[in-house]
């Protein structure tokens, strides 16, 4: 189903457009959830810690081309709002070659630099082999992740958020089945978990690409669109560069936090690895609502619907805040049972570490919910540099405070720093919008 977000009731359309995105990303998390559950249950907490460290690194690397795709999505939505379909098709061609070229270069670089990367992360010697094995296999799926996210961003930009859900559903199921087969039947260990994820990633990427080529002829580029246009490439760079930097800075900050967590040893690493999976799963709905909001803003910005833009910002903030509070309450109450899904009951210290994280950081999801809205807003009104500024404020403060508090309060100092960074960035983002609203939404 395709949604024209320049028309109709704002609240209803935003929610309906975001629901498939939420369901799709929840399914995508099954890639990581399946690895975490099966690895922790059938291999052990050391393997769980290794997967956790690898996950932080992989998230940072994939954020680069995901950020590029998100920037392209905003530009495509603006073209659609302006009804410039020929320009939209040329933008698709240019952005495809840009994103895939960067992904290939990045893949080569990480393979060449695997040992320095592991050294930087301060991986304990006991976890070094498992982490390296997992990463060497999981890196081979980067091209698939880039292709899937590129096609998904095109579909979402033109108002189709439902189709990616189907492909993720199939690939998530395949991931879980292959995890069980490779680890339990063939005893392939942590490498089997990585291989299952990579196979599932390629299935979803190839499937959604074939769908786009067959069923989206209205947006399919033709030969006449395959020529170099410096102006289009410049606009793609303008929108994508800051979004890419914003995503990369955000995940580099998380990587630095992971490095600090690793210094506390295997127990904290394992607790953090499981808790982050729960955490990511919990706030995915508000993250995807922010991405849906970004498409809404971009389409209406392109169509010059000033009044609708202002109303949408107010409505989206209220909806996101309410939903975030509900999520926080659920995570706070069920923190221990959720941790015990990933960690065996006798590993009390690991469970306690994860519960502390969830009850401190998870109580303030309203902060990250509003921050996702601000990212989407500024990315879609030709101010992507503001998203980068907000990320630097949020993550910069988080890293600085975590490294300052950790020697005093231990791991609790790391967890406390996270919501502080969110709320200070939110305050700055909304203050800037209110002060410059007349010029931001002309």
UniProtKB/TrEMBL annotation:
Biological process according to GO: monoatomic ion transport
Family, similarity comment: Belongs to the multi antimicrobial extrusion (MATE) (TC 2.A.66.1) family.
Pfam families: MatE (PF01554)
InterPro entries: MATE_fam, MATE_MdtK, MdtK-like
Organism: Intestinibaculum porci
Keyword tags: Antiport, Cell membrane, Ion transport, Membrane, Transmembrane, Transmembrane helix, Transport
Name of the protein this chain belongs to: Probable multidrug resistance protein NorM
Job description of the protein: Multidrug efflux pump.
Gene Ontology annotations for the cellular component aspect, listed alphabetically: plasma membrane
């Amino acid at each position: 189903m395709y949604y024209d977000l320049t028309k109709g009731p704002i609240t209803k359309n935003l929610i309906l457009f975001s629901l498939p995105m939420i369901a799709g990303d929840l399914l995508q998390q099954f890639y990581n959830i399946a690895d975490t559950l099966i690895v922790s249950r059938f291999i052990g907490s050391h393997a769980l810690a290794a997967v956790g460290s690898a996950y932080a690194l992989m998230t940072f690397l994939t954020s680069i081309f995901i950020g590029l795709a998100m920037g392209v999505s905003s530009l495509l939505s603006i073209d659609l709002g302006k009804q410039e379909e020929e320009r939209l098709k040329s933008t698709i061609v240019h952005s495809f070659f840009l994103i895939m070229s960067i992904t290939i270069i990045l893949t080569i670089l990480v393979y060449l630099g695997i040992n320095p990367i592991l050294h930087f992360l301060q991986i304990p010697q006991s976890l070094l082999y498992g982490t390296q094995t997992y990463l060497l296999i999981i890196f081979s799926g980067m091209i698939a992740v880039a292709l899937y996210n590129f096609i998904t961003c095109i579909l979402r930009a033109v108002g189709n958020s439902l189709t990616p859900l189907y492909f993720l559903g199939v690939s998530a199921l395949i991931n879980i089945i292959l995890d069980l087969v490779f680890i339990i039947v063939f005893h392939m260990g942590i490498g089997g978990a990585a291989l299952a994820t990579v196979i599932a990633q390629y299935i979803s990427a190839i499937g959604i690409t074939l769908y786009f080529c067959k069923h989206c002829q209205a947006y399919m580029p033709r030969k006449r669109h395959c020529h170099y246009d410096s102006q289009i490439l410049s606009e793609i760079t303008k929108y994508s560069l800051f979004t890419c930097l914003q995503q990369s800075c955000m995940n580099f900050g998380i990587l630095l936090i992971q490095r600090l967590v690793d210094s506390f040893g295997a127990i904290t690493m394992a607790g953090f690895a499981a808790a982050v999976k729960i955490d990511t799963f919990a706030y995915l709905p508000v993250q995807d609502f922010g991405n849906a909001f970004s498409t809404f803003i971009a389409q209406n910005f392109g169509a010059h619907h000033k009044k609708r833009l202002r109303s949408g910002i107010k409505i989206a903030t209220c909806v996101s805040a309410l939903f975030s509070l509900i999520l926080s309450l659920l995570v706070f109450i069920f923190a221990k049972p959720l941790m015990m899904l990933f960690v065996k009951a006798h590993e009390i210290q690991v469970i306690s570490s994860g519960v502390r994280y969830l009850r401190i950081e998870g109580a303030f999801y309203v902060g990250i919910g509003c921050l996702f809205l601000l990212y989407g807003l500024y990315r879609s009104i030709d101010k992507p540099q503001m998203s980068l500024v907000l990320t630097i404020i949020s993550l910069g403060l988080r890293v600085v405070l975590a490294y300052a508090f950790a020697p005093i309060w231990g791991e609790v100092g790391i967890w406390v720093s996270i919501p502080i960074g969110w709320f200070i960035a939110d305050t700055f983002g909304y203050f800037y919008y209110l002060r410059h609203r007349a010029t931001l939404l002309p």
